[in-house]
Amino acid sequence: MLEPWKRFLKQFYFYFFCHSLGDSIVDTDVLLSSFQTSLWSPDQLVMFFTNSFYQTCTIVSPPFDCRSFNCSLTNEFINYRLNNPYNALKMPRIKRIFLNDKQKSVFTKRYFQILKSVFINLQILEIGSSFHLNDNSDWKDDDPKLLTVHTLIIVNNQDYLQCQTST
Strands, E, within the chain: which ranges? Predict the structure, then answer.
């Protein structure tokens, strides 16, 4: 599809946010291998991650140029994959992310370490009301503080009728 345009393009960027139909499963290895052809230079990263609860997947290239995510990041983000696993993933243009896991997953120290290493200029952190942190003593040894974050937004979507009956 891009071969005729290859010589005219200086940069090619895409962001796909896909909903899965039914129980179809994406073969990550096959998908990422399609970005390991002669059309792609080895330093042209393609990132892939899933959200099994919402049955979605996200594909971004190049991730370092991405300016926003139109999805919530769950614990599954720590399992992101790259077409070139030898490169380090950095997304310096992302300033705001939304963490919301309807499964009430417990976000771990490792999760925040990955957020800190990938989103190096993160400024705004939005979290859903079902957000839970892992309360563990090992956090003290290597505290994964998000030092660039200056705004925390807590989103609480409660049903109006439910709020009325509880008062």
Answer: 14-19, 47-51, 56-61, 81-82, 96-99, 106-107, 124-128, 132-133, 151-155
